């Protein structure tokens, strides 16, 4: 469903180039859950941003169901409608209620009528366990609740794939579980997901494959049972020693 081929993304950092994503190829099948891990600066966020068209690709290609981002004829907005993204900082609109946050893109992008978009929004709020917060402003919710709103907002667009960039890293420890539970539920329902996370328990339990990045390179791509017990690359071995 997602195909990444020879992807390269270079940044210019004060005169010298940083190969943030360095010749990465992989595929994600429908319903698969990938967990992406690696040291800080290894290119995890840049990789995700390339998957949803937030970055101009330097070379290589990224496609979803044959819609190719590298093809200049591809409508990037049409491509991005298929991809939901959730960030570390929830990025909710502070001046809008939870319900309004969930309805905005449905109205502007999907052109849904009021009744339809509100019904969708309420159904998804119920799904993530915060139906009663529809009319609150984001600042009156806990971090865990805000992140669940952000997930529900992305789901309102009925994306083919969900991307998560450290969705629990900004949360107090007691709120991590409620967000991971929502993600786990989504995975069980068959959502295709690519998740950057430091939650190794989630990776072990939920991931179909773990991808390990270092210096922009994809060094390991293996099922968790294999990755966590017998990582092949020395840098993956060293990384695991630190985090486990
Ligand atoms: P972290 O775990 O800290 O979030 P990461 O694995 O997500 O790190 P990226 O944010 O993808 O790493 O960054 C990869 C490399 O690209 C880093 O060297 C970073 O400094 C560089 N980089 C990222 N974005 C930019 C940018 N907009 N301009 C210049 N360099 C950038
Ligand atoms: Mg990052």
**Low-confidence residue ranges:** none
Shape: globular
Counted beta strands: 10
**Distance between the amino and carboxyl termini:** 32 Å
Ligand types: adenosine-5'-triphosphate, magnesium ion
Order of helical and strand elements: EEEHEEHEHHHEHEHEEHH
β-strand percent reads 25-35%
Largest sheet: 6 strands, mixed
Structural class: alpha/beta
Helix content: 25-40%
What does the radius of gyration come to? Answer: 18 Å
**What strand line-up does the widest sheet have?**
6-7-8-3-9-10
Count of alpha and pi helical runs = 9
On the 0-100 scale, what is the average pLDDT?
95
Write the layout of secondary structure elements.
Blueprint: E1 2-13, E2 16-28, E3 33-37, H1 44-51, E4 59-64, E5 67-68, H2 76-81, E6 83-86, H3 98-108, H4 114-127, H5 143-155, E7 161-165, H6 173-188, E8 192-196, H7 200-206, E9 209-214, E10 217-222, H8 224-229, H9 234-243
Parallel strand pairs: 3-8, 3-9, 6-7, 7-8
Antiparallel strand pairs: 1-2, 1-4, 4-5, 9-10
Helix pairs in contact: 3-4, 3-5, 4-5, 5-6
Bound molecules: adenosine-5'-triphosphate and magnesium ion (MG).
The site of adenosine-5'-triphosphate has 12 residues, from strand 1, strand 2 and helix 1.
């Amino acid at each position: 469903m997602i195909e990444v081929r020879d992807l390269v993304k270079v940044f210019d950092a004060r005169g010298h180039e940083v190969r943030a994503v360095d010749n990465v190829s992989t595929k994600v099948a429908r319903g698969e859950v990938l967990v992406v891990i690696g040291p800080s600066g290894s290119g995890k966020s840049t990789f995700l941003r390339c998957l949803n068209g937030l970055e101009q690709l330097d070379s290589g290609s990224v496609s979803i169901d044959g819609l190719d981002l590298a093809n200049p004829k591809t409508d990037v907005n049409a491509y991005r409608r298929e991809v939901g993204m959730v960030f570390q900082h929830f990025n909710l609109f502070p001046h809008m209620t939870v319900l309004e946050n969930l309805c905005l893109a449905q109205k502007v992008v999907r052109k849904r009528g009021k009744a339809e978009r509100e019904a969708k929004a309420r159904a998804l709020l119920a799904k993530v366990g915060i139906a009663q917060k529809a009319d609150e402003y984001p600042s009156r919710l806990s971090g865990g609740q805000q992140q669940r709103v952000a997930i529900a907002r992305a789901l309102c667009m009925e994306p083919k794939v969900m991307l998560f960039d450290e969705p629990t890293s900004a949360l107090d420890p007691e709120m991590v579980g409620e967000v991971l539970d929502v993600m786990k539920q989504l995975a069980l329902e068959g959502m295709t997901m690519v998740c950057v996370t430091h939650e190794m328990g989630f990776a072990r339990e939920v991931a179909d494959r773990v991808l390990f990045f270092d210096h922009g390179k994809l060094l390991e791509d293996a099922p968790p049972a294999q990755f966590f017990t017998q990582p092949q690359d020395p840098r993956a071995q060293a990384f695991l020693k630190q985090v486990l």
